[in-house]
Amino acid sequence: MSHKAIILGASGYTGAELVRLISTHPSIDIVALSADRKAGMEMAEVFPHLRHLDLPKLQKIDEIDFNRANIVFCALPHATSQAVIRTLPADIKIIDLSADFRLRDPEAYEAWYGKPHSAIDLQEEAVYGLTEFYRDEIEGARLVAGTGCNAATGQYALRPLIEAGVIDLDEIIIDLKAAVSGAGRSLKEMLLHAELSESVVPYSAGGKHRHLGEFDQEFSKLAGREVKVQFTPHLIPADRGILVTAYVKGDPNEIHKTLADAYGDETFLQVLPFGELPQMKHIRGSNFCHLGVAGDRLPGRAIVVAVLDNLTKGSSGQALQNANLMLGEEETAGLTLAPVFP
Amino acid sequence: MSHKAIILGASGYTGAELVRLISTHPSIDIVALSADRKAGMEMAEVFPHLRHLDLPKLQKIDEIDFNRANIVFCALPHATSQAVIRTLPADIKIIDLSADFRLRDPEAYEAWYGKPHSAIDLQEEAVYGLTEFYRDEIEGARLVAGTGCNAATGQYALRPLIEAGVIDLDEIIIDLKAAVSGAGRSLKEMLLHAELSESVVPYSAGGKHRHLGEFDQEFSKLAGREVKVQFTPHLIPADRGILVTAYVKGDPNEIHKTLADAYGDETFLQVLPFGELPQMKHIRGSNFCHLGVAGDRLPGRAIVVAVLDNLTKGSSGQALQNANLMLGEEETAGLTLAPVFP
Amino acid sequence: MSHKAIILGASGYTGAELVRLISTHPSIDIVALSADRKAGMEMAEVFPHLRHLDLPKLQKIDEIDFNRANIVFCALPHATSQAVIRTLPADIKIIDLSADFRLRDPEAYEAWYGKPHSAIDLQEEAVYGLTEFYRDEIEGARLVAGTGCNAATGQYALRPLIEAGVIDLDEIIIDLKAAVSGAGRSLKEMLLHAELSESVVPYSAGGKHRHLGEFDQEFSKLAGREVKVQFTPHLIPADRGILVTAYVKGDPNEIHKTLADAYGDETFLQVLPFGELPQMKHIRGSNFCHLGVAGDRLPGRAIVVAVLDNLTKGSSGQALQNANLMLGEEETAGLTLAPVFP
Amino acid sequence: MSHKAIILGASGYTGAELVRLISTHPSIDIVALSADRKAGMEMAEVFPHLRHLDLPKLQKIDEIDFNRANIVFCALPHATSQAVIRTLPADIKIIDLSADFRLRDPEAYEAWYGKPHSAIDLQEEAVYGLTEFYRDEIEGARLVAGTGCNAATGQYALRPLIEAGVIDLDEIIIDLKAAVSGAGRSLKEMLLHAELSESVVPYSAGGKHRHLGEFDQEFSKLAGREVKVQFTPHLIPADRGILVTAYVKGDPNEIHKTLADAYGDETFLQVLPFGELPQMKHIRGSNFCHLGVAGDRLPGRAIVVAVLDNLTKGSSGQALQNANLMLGEEETAGLTLAPVFP
Question: Does the N terminus or the C terminus of chain A have fewer Cβ atoms within 10 A?
Fold first, then answer.
């Protein structure tokens, strides 16, 4: 059976990535694409790399007949997302890629995003979309909240360790290196080639990055107590990819074993042999996450390194993986493309 | 039915790209991989981006049982390639990605490659692998010679124009911009990040690049007279992709129409509307070739711009496309992955 | 004696480059900097790489006392530039880096820039700023028009050849590869890292690029007849640098000798031995232009390759070189910094 | 008075950088250049960006008359360096850029570099070359050991804090991002453009990087007790630059004040206002080090970020700064070039 999908916000990078991935999916068809400011244009004009595909024209959201579809991918900016999603038919499944439904607590939402949530009932209903850890809930969900791409990477590195209690919960540092597409196709000076190439740029340092809201929520829930990590993201001159270097205290071998055991059956989460660390380029364009653990010369200390493609496993690939679960399809359908290297 | 494939020279970029593409192919299995100097290693050690795949270990060529396979992809260096291919069983289909069987004329081979051909009977037998123009021969061939990646790009831009006689055959200039993976995974100073980033490097200028042998052979054959183009390749700081800017004399609209007509039914050859020119990034990681034509302010002059991914449409994707024909499979099987952008 | 300089439009890349170069100049002090939208800010906020310098705050133009200075560098957008320059005191020397005074013919200006020139008397007075060819006029000028960066590169490759009559004037093709800073610090999608990295983008193809106005004017004047070149610029993923590949007809050795003779006494124009071609990275951050000539296998054809840094020799370095002449200083003062490699 | 300098190992990046910097120095002339495998070649053949300079030919070391010089810059590989330096005349001043004389303790040298030191008397004599902290010793030294480039960056971030006792000495983590030229002009697969672009590569993790030897020595000496930091370097796709993100425990404002006070009079060490963090690109090609401090949301935690150019302040610029001191010249001579941005 073929599913009918709508992508809202198709003129951004995550929208384009959804189209790319769905184009090889065996049982999902795209029936509508929205992009308010580019309504009326062909997708090939906005993203010439998709010109070989037979795609619907871009429309305004209010021109779309949602009854034609059984699943909606919502790649709109946060705040816009909650306003739109509350107007959708009740029987349609929704995967939101914005930040709007990631945080369970309305106060936490307001604290991190600067205004009250306007759809608190939906916020309650939404399931957090980190697939490997919320599979059962996602299968039965109507509304799934895609995670932050940085938040996903950090959680893949740390969740099993926090849950198993093999690391010191008060001494977790996440130093993150992020490629530029995570910031979207937005016209900001720091995203210009001339500004970013040959550079490394720390940003939102000191506990200001919004994905901390997700870390706080998830890690505290796992630990059964408050867990607050230290988190510094850095923009690096690359297009796709996130590399997390997590500094933790605990027994390195136990840490490695805990991760390897937790992910042993996971298709997309690949744990390298102890002492080997992954490189960012080795997952580009794919839904894989590579993880590695190395001990330090200082006893009781280790680093955990995790890499994934922010546009794939970090957002659109994750969204499709969740859609597969929600639609009763094979979880990996359309997602087993090998990374593009070099 | 499932085909059994062997890849010789699997430790280079074209070998890895073959594995990537075949991993999504519905009916080809890889049964052996060779890499003489890395024999005994896992492919994941040589190319960690392929670690999720269940692949045979790398072997020496003489350890491989060729009877297990019905098709061999030979990604060895030229000269080595002819020596190896002549030893293969007679009933196995072979796609050679080296330069060894591209030129029909033994003298031309010797002139461009600096030594006599050692397998002239095979050279005679081989079919030139530019799929869209040699489909019938490829379908029935035992040995297909993959084209040069630069040679493929230039030919896609120019063959229909030369054949139709709509451009001046004595005034063709090909200015080519090539990403670095075309040079392979070889340790050369000019391929270092520190040397190439922020640079553009003209090389083999003045008629010295070996792919001129292919241009001469194919263009002259098409025209029924000697055609010699002027050709300057430039290395640019990118990993994948070739952009050809071909300067021709003729009526721009007729040139565009000729190309658009010639490629109208081709899946992988996409001609943009008149006046629009393609960008290199828009085909990255895919088997597509985008083409555009623009007229000049000087009457009777035009540029034709063609872009493709040297590792995909320029070599390993082409090889798989040819394999599909040789094996009686759908020509596009395993090759319709959308480009990875950004 | 120390000269007093004002830089108008200091918040752009050419403005910052002027500051960088003047900071090592033995006899020029910067007394005022303008940037209308950023007035009131410190230069270090706009360009943190200049934070070690003791610079005046950014001001609005009308806040500046021009009597404090004897030279003005005007790095404003075209059209704005003519409006501002006509209001400056008559006794101040001016180097304009915009396109406003490059073309001598008001009709040509209107044709290329889309509106009539509003300061035709200044247009008449202005001297074209290609230093090595207009030294005498520049020395005595009050107003010098900096050349286009692409226009400068193409002219260094071709002027001596056109003047000497050693190439066919009707068969000149300029294929140009330009780094991204030539487009300035402007927020355009095509200038984003995510769009440009790993790409090559032809633009303004077919005779639409405005620097053709300069080529037409200068080459025709040199030849004493109309000369119209074919010109295709390509944006490449680098920050600084222009590489011109000029395709010409003529005797390669004569072409090389003509260039080598013409530039033998020039500090900044370095002609490589016959057959050697320059690389873009080898002039980065400097005022040098490297040139090379190679013959083709087709008799009577050659390529001339020229590279320079668009922000230095292509604009701000050229401006300072001209300022040195206008101020009676050593022409090379502040300009002999070696390229930064790698 | 003019000094006469010899550069040994001039065919590497640090050698070329020395030539670049000395070329604008008012009182140092280069009288000889060595490069054993490239002896007989012109420097312009090895480094075309230096072709405008009038430089001696490359020679073998044993062809050089050391009596012509009063200072030697030794940019040879470690181990080679100690062998060569012990043969130099006793009255010549020497700045060694290798690792050979950085560690005071022969056992530490052997532990980190894998073989015994062969010139222990010189090791004792050598002064550690971190200019701002060893000025007096360097002024009077005959042999100065240039620091590791990573080691320099980490020390600029941390020395005043350790000395002042404002951070917890047992909880220091240095996460470092290094551009590729720090690895030299060596032919290694991981340094290829195709491998490094679009990637981030952690290396020597877990306490294996040799620069830890310098951290241990210097930090322990400052603290008067053993101090061992955790240190993870990452290779990033850029040519020049190091960015250190140091995670420390202490009062953020006190940390900032300590750094700002310590470096208030230093020309090259620029401390940004509290809460602002430096970017790697803003010091490219210069001898400046920018530093910033930000507090964390977790009380008593801070990050210190330091950036410098590994080839300039991290090696060759440091070497020239030390040479100035040793020769009685102005410390900043030849080193005040502004960074090249973009």
Answer: N
